[in-house]
């Protein structure tokens, strides 16, 4: 059996901060896991280095389930984003090792491919509707089958999801959090027009998505969903904060627009009521923040009982290691829905060479043994960590609000 001989945390910043766990074995095989928690990266790095790694050395690297349970139950203070991100990093690295030792890509160990690839969606954002539609058309020309639309709102200086970059959106920046301003009334008036014009310009053969980013009350979300029904959205994402899972009952009562939520979830318990009462259509928990491949498979299995599909978060705050893990996961499960795909920068791709690929609107993790991602540690060392925060949000009268 392969014994874990060492493990260490690698922090690098090729365009943005990433935390990577590298686990080594006595058979000369190592595995990588993503441990990036956007805006709180060093908390996970410390959790791993100071508390988890000492418990790994000497263990059987094949014992993925036992190690997962040890780290989850053994901590006593269960769950939470820091703990579950650290567990996820270990889990990914162990699946990577198992695949390499077996000489197989991880998706084969999970039961094999259930489809030819994972449909992904890109991010079309613009300062106004015309620019957003132009960006969406560029995605169509590249072969995408699904696009998320986010546009600047008249009368608001900033809007979630809108940046100067054409193909990705990176909100984490600055040594202190930026403050943005929000108006629900202006937003609610504007969004139906965005999708009316988008359907007129783009037609009906493309899936259109939209992210509210936790900005509405349940009844406001129900009203927006109803207003958007004529435009047949693929989903309306994060319509309201989901700490109170029952809040989605009210949204469900008022709209048939499909609902997606869960990118900030870190365990099956965050989604249990939403799934069992069929209050959502897509669960968006991520491999890195929800305890790794091992735990996310449990979430997907529960969701499958209730015809809820996956739609994992996949912005640039997930490293290529996590993107690969998400694709192996998505390729293998029966109830895959869609995978978010925001391209990494050239600097990031150079630090994390990978086997996954995009073709005809689908992504495939590749067939290299393990996860199919490596890290260039010499290059990674050239990019030093720099503190960066996600923004915070206030209403127009100054009240703190959900970002």
From TrEMBL:
Pathway connected to this protein: Carbohydrate metabolism; pentose and glucuronate interconversion
EC class name: lyase
Protein family: Belongs to the mandelate racemase/muconate lactonizing enzyme family. GalD subfamily.
Lineage, highest ranks first: Bacteria, Pseudomonadati, Pseudomonadota, Alphaproteobacteria, Sphingomonadales
Function field: Catalyzes the dehydration of D-mannonate. Has no detectable activity with a panel of 70 other acid sugars (in vitro).
Listed name of the protein: D-mannonate dehydratase
Keyword Transmembrane helix applies: no
UniProt keyword Lyase, yes or no: yes
Organism from which the protein derives: Sphingomonas leidyi
Catalyzed reactions per annotation: D-mannonate = 2-dehydro-3-deoxy-D-gluconate + H2O
């Amino acid at each position: 059996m392969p014994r874990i001989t060492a493990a260490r945390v690698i922090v690098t910043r090729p365009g943005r901060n990433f935390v990577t766990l590298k686990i080594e074995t006595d058979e000369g095989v190592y595995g990588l896991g993503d441990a990036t928690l956007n805006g709180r990266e060093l908390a996970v790095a410390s959790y791993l280095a100071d508390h988890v790694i000492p418990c790994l050395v000497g263990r059987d690297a094949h014992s993925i389930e036992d190690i997962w349970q040890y780290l989850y139950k053994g901590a006593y203070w269960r769950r939470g984003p820091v703990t579950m991100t650290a567990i996820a990093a270990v889990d990914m690295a162990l699946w990577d090792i198992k695949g390499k030792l077996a000489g197989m890509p991880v998706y084969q160990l999970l039961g094999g491919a259930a489809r030819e690839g994972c449909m992904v969606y890109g991010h079309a954002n613009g300062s106004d509707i015309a620019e957003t539609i132009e960006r969406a058309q560029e995605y169509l020309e590249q072969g995408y089958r699904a696009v998320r639309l986010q546009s600047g709102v008249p009368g608001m200086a900033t809007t979630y999801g809108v940046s100067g970059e054409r193909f990705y959106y990176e909100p984490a920046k600055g040594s202190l959090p930026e403050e943005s301003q929000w108006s629900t009334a202006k937003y609610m008036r504007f969004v139906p027009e965005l999708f009316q014009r988008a359907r007129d310009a783009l037609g009906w053969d493309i899936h259109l998505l939209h992210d509210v980013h936790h900005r509405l009350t349940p009844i406001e979300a129900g009203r927006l969903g109803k207003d958007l029904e004529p435009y047949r959205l693929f989903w309306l994402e994060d319509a309201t904060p989901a700490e109170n899972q029952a809040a989605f009952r009210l949204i469900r009562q008022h709209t048939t627009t499909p609902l997606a939520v869960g990118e900030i979830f870190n365990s099956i318990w965050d989604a249990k009521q939403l799934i069992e009462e069929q209050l959502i259509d897509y669960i968006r928990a991520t491999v890195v923040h929800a305890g790794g491949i091992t735990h996310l498979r449990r979430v997907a299995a529960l969701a499958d009982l209730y015809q809820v599909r996956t739609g994992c978060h996949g912005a640039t705050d997930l490293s290529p290691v996590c993107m690969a893990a998400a694709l192996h996961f998505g390729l293998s499960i029966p109830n895959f829905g869609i995978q978010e795909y925001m391209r990494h920068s050239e600097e990031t791709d150079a630090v994390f060479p990978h086997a996954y690929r995009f073709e005809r609107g689908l992504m495939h993790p590749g067939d290299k043994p393990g996860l199919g991602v490596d890290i260039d540690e010499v290059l990674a060392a050239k990019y030093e960590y720099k503190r960066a925060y996600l923004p915070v949000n206030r209403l127009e009268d100054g009240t703190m609000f959900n970002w």
